[in-house]
Amino acid sequence: MAHSHSTTHFNPWHDVNYGSKAPQTVNAIIEIPKGSKGKYELDKDSGLLKLDRVLFSAVHYPAAYGFIPQTYCDDKDPLDVLVLCSVDVVPMCLIEAKVIGVMQMIDNNEEDDKIIAVAANDVSMNHYNDISELPPHTLLEMRRFFEDYKALENKQVVVEKFMGREEAYKIVQDSLRLYDETFRHKNHQAQLSML
């Protein structure tokens, strides 16, 4: 007997909620664990995690790295997030992340914001409320990582500035609104046309 395959499948970007306490606390889906040299990213079509490339040996991710579901940015991707946590977080783990700031980058002449957050359920991290409270070397590591790994790939990246949680909240809200306008509006139109 043949198996019938349903055409609908689960996609972490679209089918996981961004969290009821956004923008202060969001759900983050981790693609890359801290210390990894593998750049994993969500395959938008299948919803699976794919290995995009292996980084040069001199660099590795300074924090758990992933995205906030049901967000959308000008680079056609969900909003990136770096989550500071005292344990290694496995890929595709859903983590409650308290937003404390943002790193604003220019990547190949495109704005590319990275939200900086701490794991809400990690007592050794969740006392941080704003990036100004982090040890200075933490932000330096983040800046160096993104500038170095892109430079090794002969790409131009400039980390423009770090900003605190209020700015980060605005960026999260903008990405939620853009997701809404881009996807929910289209879905609604598609549903209407089927009537």
From TrEMBL:
<feature type="binding site">
    <location>
        <position position="53"/>
    </location>
    <ligand>
        <name>substrate</name>
    </ligand>
</feature>
<feature type="binding site">
    <location>
        <position position="65"/>
    </location>
    <ligand>
        <name>substrate</name>
    </ligand>
</feature>
<keyword id="KW-0378">Hydrolase</keyword>
<feature type="binding site">
    <location>
        <position position="112"/>
    </location>
    <ligand>
        <name>Mg(2+) 1</name>
    </ligand>
</feature>
<comment type="subunit">
    <text>Homohexamer.</text>
</comment>
<dbReference type="Pfam" id="PF00719">
    <property type="entry name" value="Pyrophosphatase"/>
</dbReference>
<keyword id="KW-0963">Cytoplasm</keyword>
<dbReference type="GO" id="GO:0006796">
    <property type="term" value="P:phosphate-containing compound metabolic process"/>
</dbReference>
<feature type="binding site">
    <location>
        <position position="80"/>
    </location>
    <ligand>
        <name>Mg(2+) 2</name>
    </ligand>
</feature>
<keyword id="KW-0479">Metal-binding</keyword>
<dbReference type="GO" id="GO:0000287">
    <property type="term" value="F:magnesium ion binding"/>
</dbReference>
<protein>
    <recommendedName>
        <fullName>Inorganic pyrophosphatase</fullName>
        <ecNumber>3.6.1.1</ecNumber>
    </recommendedName>
</protein>
<feature type="binding site">
    <location>
        <position position="149"/>
    </location>
    <ligand>
        <name>substrate</name>
    </ligand>
</feature>
<comment type="similarity">
    <text>Belongs to the PPase family.</text>
</comment>
<feature type="binding site">
    <location>
        <position position="80"/>
    </location>
    <ligand>
        <name>Mg(2+) 1</name>
    </ligand>
</feature>
<dbReference type="GO" id="GO:0004427">
    <property type="term" value="F:inorganic diphosphate phosphatase activity"/>
</dbReference>
<dbReference type="GO" id="GO:0005737">
    <property type="term" value="C:cytoplasm"/>
</dbReference>
<keyword id="KW-0460">Magnesium</keyword>
<feature type="binding site">
    <location>
        <position position="75"/>
    </location>
    <ligand>
        <name>Mg(2+) 1</name>
    </ligand>
</feature>
<feature type="binding site">
    <location>
        <position position="39"/>
    </location>
    <ligand>
        <name>substrate</name>
    </ligand>
</feature>
<comment type="function">
    <text>Catalyzes the hydrolysis of inorganic pyrophosphate (PPi) forming two phosphate ions.</text>
</comment>
<dbReference type="InterPro" id="IPR008162">
    <property type="entry name" value="Pyrophosphatase"/>
</dbReference>
<dbReference type="InterPro" id="IPR036649">
    <property type="entry name" value="Pyrophosphatase_sf"/>
</dbReference>
